[in-house]
Inverse folding.
């Protein structure tokens, strides 16, 4: 009889755990049949949606609070700015912190003028750094961004170093020789 006590206690503990799990799952609310699902918390889609709901000043203030580590103040500001619930505000600020978004005004941006008047100029300076061993090169320009630099890196890594160097000179103020030196450091 004593040999059955321990297995029975273990069985009762497992059953209690299963019942608690089923009960917890039953309490979760599922969205209604007509409800449109929101983007997943912490996703880039949620970050884009949240950023689009903010004015330029609110956007700047929320990112300043995030940078200072004041998440609660950022959530409160988002909550007051949008009128969303606390949970939605928390998720939105978390997504904004995880997937930083530039401010985009409501009007439609003008198409890039790369063909007509040269490359588009951005309101910030982009820094690209390449190094190999002890050699390091940096290119800083307001005509570069992640997308353009990504295309240049792809060209360099696929063996089209001259095309990559030409693209780099078109989107920065470096000479072709300096661009070739920079591209040589990207080519693995």
């Amino acid at each position: 009889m004593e040999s059955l006590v321990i297995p029975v206690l273990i069985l009762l503990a497992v059953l209690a755990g299963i019942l608690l799990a089923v009960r917890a799952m039953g309490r979760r609310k599922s969205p209604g049949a007509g409800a449109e699902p929101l983007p997943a918390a912490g996703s880039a889609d949620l970050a884009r949606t949240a950023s689009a709901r903010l004015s330029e000043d609110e956007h700047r203030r929320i990112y300043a609070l995030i940078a200072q580590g004041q998440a609660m103040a950022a959530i409160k500001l988002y909550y007051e700015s949008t009128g969303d619930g606390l949970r939605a505000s928390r998720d939105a600020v978390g997504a904004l912190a995880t997937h930083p978004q530039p401010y985009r005004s409501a009007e439609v941006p003008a198409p890039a003028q790369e063909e007509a008047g040269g490359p588009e100029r951005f309101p910030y300076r982009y820094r690209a750094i390449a190094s190999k061993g002890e050699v390091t090169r940096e290119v800083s320009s307001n005509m570069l961004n992640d997308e353009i630099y990504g295309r240049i890196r792809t060209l360099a890594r696929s063996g089209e170093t001259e095309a990559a160097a030409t693209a780099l000179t078109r989107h920065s103020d470096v000479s072709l020789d300096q661009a070739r030196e920079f591209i040589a450091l990207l080519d693995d």
In short: Strands lie at 126-132, 135-141.
